[in-house]
Amino acid sequence: MKELKHLFDFYVNSSIHVALSVYALTWITLIQFDIDYDKSVLYFVFFATITGYNFVKYFGIAEFHHRSLANWLKAIQVFSFIAFFAMAYYLWQLEKHTLLLIGVLGLITFLYAIPIVPKKIFIDDQKNLRQIAGLKIYVIALVWTFTTVILPLYNSNQNLNVDVLLTSIQRFIFIIILMLPFEIRDLNYDSLKLATIPQKIGVKKTKIIGVFLLMIFFLLEYFKDEISSNSIIAALVITLFTLLSVVFSSKKQSKYYSAFWVESLPVVWLIVLLMLR
Q1: Which of 26, 145, 188, 239 lies at a 20 to 30 A Cα distance from 264?
Q2: Is the distance from CB of 181 to CB of 257 less than 8 angstroms?
Q3: C-alpha span between 181 and 196 (Å, rounded)
Q4: Is residue 114 scored above 80 in pLDDT?
Q5: What is the DSSP string of 219-264?
Q6: What's the maximum distance between 2 C-alpha atoms anywhere in the chain?
Q7: Distance linking the first and last C-alpha atoms of the chain
Q8: Whole-Å CA distances, 2 to 8, 71, 255
Q9: Are the beta carbons of 192 and 139 closer than 8 angstroms?
Q10: CA-based angle 275:265:49, to the nearest 5?
């Protein structure tokens, strides 16, 4: 059992689980727009998420403790290097015009982790995008939206019509809602200067905002030009599951509540869509 727990912790800490969620959201987009399974895009997104998330999460640790890295961090570093080369392999299988968009997303990820921007606009000494008060959740939502909606559609030469815009808004809202349990969890650890949503308005009002945003997320499905019963049912199911995850989130949630269960919701959404096909 101990070995299984170590393996599961590696699965979560090495960003495999979050990469699976981004992969699922990207596949959902392909299904929603009736585009065939695109292995190059989906595998690129999967390995790019592992590479980007591990870079953001462990850059500071590796920078200052590279001579005395714990075994688990060394393993994650090796795994991240493998993921980087896999990402590069699938990158060159994408359409050439997609590379510019990927470059912009990569730059945002870089600025999110590396302290290079003037200190005076930041809350602490780190000087990176995630330290700007109140900005973190919106940067993550924006990157996830472009990665899981715009990127696969742009690579498939899909026209950027009203349905694409509405799907992008839905996805942006959905990611923000998924982040709320994380922000509630981190209330005990985050600096007050981060100005997260729960810090500014409290846990109860944060949950109310989450419920309100979920209503918008679901209702936007009816404004699309192409509406199907399958998409409505799938949107309703994931709305209900996400509602429960927000309502039952707390500052004293279990270790895996957000990092595993909440991040599993995109996979649940994908499974529902696949079952309805």
Answers
A1: 188
A2: yes
A3: 12
A4: no
A5: HGGGGSSS--HHHHHHHHHHHHHHHHHHHT--TT--TTIIIIIGGG
A6: 57
A7: 38
A8: 10, 16, 16
A9: no
A10: 105
DSSP letter, residue 44 = H
Domains of the chain, by residue range, sit at 2-276
Judge whether 206 and 184 are in contact, CB under 8 Å: yes
Question: Cβ neighbours of residue 204 under 8 Å, at least 6 residues apart?
Answer: none
Structure tokens at 20: 């699976």
- How many Cα atoms are found within 13 Å in the side-chain-facing hemisphere of 139? 21
Assigned token pair, 178: 């998924």
Cβ–Cβ under 8 Å, residues 94 and 87: no
Q: Which two tokens stand for residue 197?
A: 């949503």
pLDDT tens for 23-82 read: 999 999 999 999 999 999 999 999 999 998 888 777 655 554 555 456 778 888 889 999
Whether residue 254 contacts residue 214, with contact meaning beta carbons closer than 8 Å, is answered with no
Cβ neighbours for 187, distance < 8 A, ≥ 6 positions apart: 196, 198, 199, 203, 251
**Residue range 223-264, pLDDT digits in tens:** 999 888 999 999 999 999 999 999 999 888 888 999 999 999
